[in-house]
Amino acid sequence: MREDDLRESTSDKFEDDLIEALDDGFERLGSIESPFTLRVPPTGSEPQKFKEAQRLHQERQPVALRADELRVDPITRNLDQWVQNMSSYDFPGVDTVPRVIRRKRAEAALEVARSVFSLSEFTRDVSFEDPAVRGRYWTEPTTIEIGTDTADFPGWRFAATLAHEIGHHADNHIKLHRHFYSETEIGDECLFETQTQYNEARTLSVRIRGEITDRETPGVKNYRKKNSEYAADAFAAMVLEPHRTRQQTPAIASRLEDVFSEFFTEFQKRRHRIDSAWMRVPV
Questions:
Q1: CA 3, CA 62: separation in Å to the nearest integer?
Q2: Phi-psi category of residue 128: left, alpha or beta, with phi > 0 → left and psi -120 to 50 → alpha
Q3: How far apart are alpha carbons 222 and 54 in whole angstroms?
Q4: Is the dihedral of CA 127, 132, 135, 139 positive or negative?
Q5: 7 bridge partner residues
Q6: At a CB cut-off of 8 Å and minimum separation 6, what does 46 contact?
Q7: Which phi and psi angles does 172 have, rounded to 5°?
Q8: What ranges do the domains of the chain cover?
Q9: Which element (helix H / strand E) includes 139?
């Protein structure tokens, strides 16, 4: 069997030409703004308003601060708008879900996947031949490999990439054990039963990984347009932002929780323990 037959998918390949330096000092991956597609420059030259938002956030009462960090609100780069109502908006990188929480959620999902989906192996800090690759899933033996950079956009760092690859494994698991799969035609034999579920999964993919371009390589399908990529990112969204995903994209959220009920039942218990521990830690 050829190596390519065993590799289900690689995680998204970073397209550097989509990175835009914004006038206020932030960088954005494409045209979509989310907690995953915005970052301060990796050189460490943080925008002044970012530093001011951090200062104001740290002055809040510890309980309010921690609760706000666990809540996913609409994102804004307008400092005045954020200051006037911190409980209704998130400032990127300040009161968005902390990196440590995303990481703990992804690692909890990994442990659940080991038992529920019989995931065989996991390797971190892999140096891939292609420097644009952040993660890879192999079907035989079922293996996830991760090699990310802390200077990446949040949607390409460890937590999002690991959750994405677990999503590929979950998709492959139902292909083998329940005989339906994301890459079949939308309907009863597909992970996406309806066009609405498919559309919502694509929306989640854009939120996490950035916009999906129309560029094509001759003879190769644009991998970001594959159903399995939408499925993996929708699964990742349910791991990283479960409450928001249920509220904003209820059709695909319900579908994933139904298909992978054993996984999400156990994962939600672990996520609750992670969030509760975060609220108990003094700031």
A1: 51
A2: beta
A3: 39
A4: negative
A5: 138
A6: 25, 40
A7: -70, -35
A8: 3-13+98-280, 16-84
A9: strand 135-139
Query: How far apart are the C-alpha atoms of 29 and 33, rounded to whole Å?
Result: 8
List the structure tokens of 29: 């991956």
Residue with tokens 């002044």, as numbered in its chain: 48
Q: How far is CA 232 from CA 11, 118, 167, 168, 208, in A?
A: 9, 17, 4, 5, 11
In single-letter form, the type of residue at position 8 comes to E
Cα(193)–Cα(180) distance, integer angstroms? 10
Q: Mean pLDDT in each 10-residue stretch from start to end of the chain (283 residues)?
A: 44 70 93 95 88 96 95 97 96 96 98 95 90 87 90 93 95 88 91 97 95 62 82 97 98 97 98 96 64
Instruction: Please state, in angstroms and rounded to a whole number, the distance separating the CA atoms of residues 207 and 21.
Output: 18
Distance CA 97, CA 152 (A): 16
Question: What residue has token string 């609100």?
Answer: 73
